[in-house]
Amino acid sequence: MSKKVLGRGLGAFFPEYEEEGKEATSEGGQKKSPKTKTAVPIEPAERVNVVLNIPVDHIRPNPHQPRKDFNEEALDELSSSIKKHGLIQPITVRYLGEKRFELISGERRLRATKLAGLDEIPAYIREANDEQLIAFALIENIQREQLNPLEISMGYKRLIDECDYTQSEVAERVGKNRSTVTNMLRLLQLPDFIQAALRDESISTGHARALINLKSEDDQKKALKKIVKNSLSVRQTEDLVRSLDKKSEQKSKKPEKKASNPFLDEFSKRLRQNLSTKVDIKQKAKGGEIRIEYYSDDDLERLMQLFDEMG
Known about the structure:
- This protein is an alpha/beta fold.
- Among the domains are: 9-24 and 35-145, Conserved hypothetical protein from pyrococcus furiosus pfu- 392566-001, ParB domain; 190-245, Orthogonal Bundle (Arc Repressor Mutant, subunit A), CATH 1.10.10.2830; 262-292, no CATH class.
- Helices cover 49% and strands 13% of the residues.
- The protein contains 13 helices and nine strands.
- The protein has helices at 16-19, 72-85, 107-115, 130-144, 149-163, 167-174, 178-186, 192-199, 205-211, 217-230, 234-253, 262-275, 297-310, and strands at 24-25, 31-32, 50-55, 59-60, 91-97, 100-105, 120-125, 279-283, 288-292.
- The strands form three sheets. A five-stranded mixed beta sheet has the order 3-7-5-6-4. A two-stranded antiparallel sheet has the order 1-2. A two-stranded antiparallel sheet has the order 8-9.
- α10 runs antiparallel to α11 (234-253).
- The chain is elongated, with a radius of gyration of 36 Å.
- It starts with 15 loop residues before the first helix and ends with a helix.
- Residues 1-46 have low confidence and may be disordered.
């Protein structure tokens, strides 16, 4: 009679998993050593796109894991839930050969399962080359895991840099609008102190996107301090940014004060008194220029007469 496949875990598809760790007996009742085989290759296709129970020690971490921060308290809670109810959502892996697997997505679930002291974990096995592994890992984590905004932004960037996706292709694959992807990528342009506040949830993505519009880091620091201190909403933050931006623009339009030269000031004063009009003296690297203003043809005629008399 053939073996049932459902509910038998990895042994249904990789028979050597059932054979390892069991003591087989001969017809005479004597124990014999368990058989060992070379791992069955991933082909044929029915050994992928299935969910199997896999030993946790046979799964290596994903080197392209987009998630960097794992909340220990949340891991403990998930671990307790898994210990009590089991893991409802399988992780995703690819088969490497030699009964070894590589995680594609679900590192948080894998860590919590190990923390719960379980030896096996349900895993969905799919085929993936190295490039697809990066894409699957990023996309599935972005879609399923509770990544922070910067991890999501970095995930989008890696899809563009490492998988040659356009922003439109990223948006299509993660189920977002292209404008959403563009705005998330802009978060990576923020200075470190704002990224840190976003990472530790002192501010939200909406706050961070508003702060991008401030050109001065000093203004960004002032705004961030007010946001955190006064618990400003995103709308209030947008108003604050507009106010700071307007002040900064007005400040930049103010003419810079020229360094005063007492000798030139004195000469300008004497010329103004003698000519009864506005006179500016501009000093250059060599020499300079005198600018005399007149306000009508008659005024110009008057100045010409004065010059004739001086001559």
